[in-house]
Amino acid sequence: MDVSATWRDASTTPYWLDTPDRPAARSALTADTHTDLLVVGGGFSGLWTALLAKERDPDRDVLLVEGDRIGWAASGRNGGFCSASLTHGRDNGAQRFPDEIETLERLGRENLAAIGETVQRYGIDCDYHLRDSLTVATEPYQVREMRDAATGFLDQDAVRARLDSPTFLGGYVEEGDLALVDPARLAWGLADAAERLGVRIAEHTRVSDLAKDGDRMRLRTDGGRTITAAHVALGTNAFPSLVKRVRLHTVPVYDYVLMTEPLSDAQLASIGWAGREGVDDAGNQFHYYRMTADRRILWGGYDAIYHFGRAVRPAYDQRTDTFEILARQFFATFPQLEGLRFSHRWGGAIDTCTRFFAFFGTAYDARVSYALGYTGLGVGATRFGARVMLDLLSGAHTELTELAMVRTKPLPFPPEPLAYAGIQATRVALAAADRHEGKRNLWLRGLDKVGLGFDS
Ligand SMILES: Cc1cc2nc3c(=O)[nH]c(=O)nc-3n(C[C@H](O)[C@H](O)[C@H](O)COP(=O)(O)OP(=O)(O)OC[C@H]3O[C@@H](n4cnc5c(N)ncnc54)[C@H](O)[C@@H]3O)c2cc1C
């Protein structure tokens, strides 16, 4: 089979953004202005911050500025897995904050419920549905680990009855902790809702620097405008932070996705998937996959590509080698779908930190707050991060500001060339672990010991 032919002609626009329904851009900021709260970034992080700020205090003036388009970056090009987990999985959170994990799990469930309520309250049409999450084992050692550890264990027949692949050996299912969503429509809907509450939004307005000016902040845009603000919340994700000292705490890592054409009735019948679960597999280099409303399969993950010097560039959104690997792995997983083609292929940057979930902080005498480091799981957690940013700016002691998760930061990555060398070594070691029954070599065990890591 000519695998390249299945993806070569695919559109390079992320599927979610490739729709005539994409709203027209709002105008850029055309005059100097003052605001009570300036939100920088029009992804989920910034959008939730602006919306929640207005909901909390309708009299506060809120301005959101986005350097490009609302939801164009990670928020409009992800898998649409909206997880309850705030810590990139319970195990990862429990390992780092054992005394707090039950609270973090509860806050995560409350966060997911609140996202669902918001979608309903504002009538956001974004194909939001609670789904089971299904993790599949494709190696015998993974089955053994799942059988020992997981409630919700499914043997091979049970997992293949849900979704049929000859590569599945077992799995486990979790209920109630996941929604699947069309992420771009969620971002656009949040922007509309915020605007209806009075938030001002400017697109194509990039902030080039910020500085303290008496008791307020002064920011310059690349269009030459000045914004003064009592407070600033930064939701800038994998892009260079306007607070320079936190830049070493994250690295931009590229993750890639293929989207198939819609499945025919016969193709769908050949794999099952009646429950429309959100699926991932259990390796270190894992895939995630799901179905869309129009019966396409989104298939992403596996590779995680870092470019020297923390570089973020539009050219990195496409990667031939990765698409070829992903396509080959797709047809190995679902040989019954031979003949299906991919309609879209794209990638995007993830703000990876060494604990794999967000960290928070303030700068300039707590006039500025930031939330960064969501790694591969920010669709849901950014709403929680938005609440943290607002609480930090309020100066109040709240349940969130007292959390150890909020008060501590992950270890930074080293500067170059060490960051590049260390990340490449880790990628090679993780791939080797996947080939050798999950056994971690000395390098990975050393990283585990000091709480450093690397993940997509
Ligand atoms: C391919 C891919 C798949 C993913 N899949 C999932 C998934 O299934 N589930 C999940 O939970 N997470 C997933 N993620 C991660 C998730 O998308 C992100 O964690 C989340 O969208 C982060 O939201 P954000 O608002 O912080 O960042 P972004 O959406 O990146 O928004 C940041 C915005 O800030 C703007 N900006 C930056 N600097 C400036 C500046 N100086 N001035 C003005 N604007 C600025 C940028 O233009 C950008 O629009 C995925 C990510 C990728 C790339």
Structural commentary:
This protein is an alpha+beta fold. The protein is built from 13 helices and 20 strands. Strands 5, 6, 7, 13, 14, 15, 16, 17 and 18 form a 9-stranded mixed β-sheet that branches. Strands 1, 2, 9, 10, 11, 12, 19 and 20 form an 8-stranded mixed β-sheet that branches. Strands 3-8-4 form a 3-stranded antiparallel β-sheet, with helices on one face. A hairpin with a 4-residue loop joins strand 19 (359-363) and strand 20 (368-372). Helix 2 (44-56) runs parallel beside helix 7 (183-196) and helix 2 crosses helix 10. The longest helix has 21 residues, at 101-121. It starts with a helix and ends in a 6-residue tail after the last helix.
Keywords:
globular, 456 residues, binds flavin-adenine dinucleotide, 8-stranded mixed β-sheet, alpha+beta, single chain
Give a quick precis of the structure.
The protein is α+β, with helices and mostly antiparallel strands and 456 residues long.
Shape: globular
Alpha-beta content class: alpha+beta
Low-confidence stretches: none
Q: State the helix count.
A: 13
Give the names of the bound compounds: flavin-adenine dinucleotide
**Main sheet specs:** 9 strands, mixed
Report the C-alpha radius of gyration, rounded.
22 Å
Tell me what portion of residues adopts beta-strand conformation. 15-25%
**Average residue pLDDT:** 94
| Estimated helix fraction | 25-40%
State the end-to-end CA separation: 29 Å
Number of strands: 20
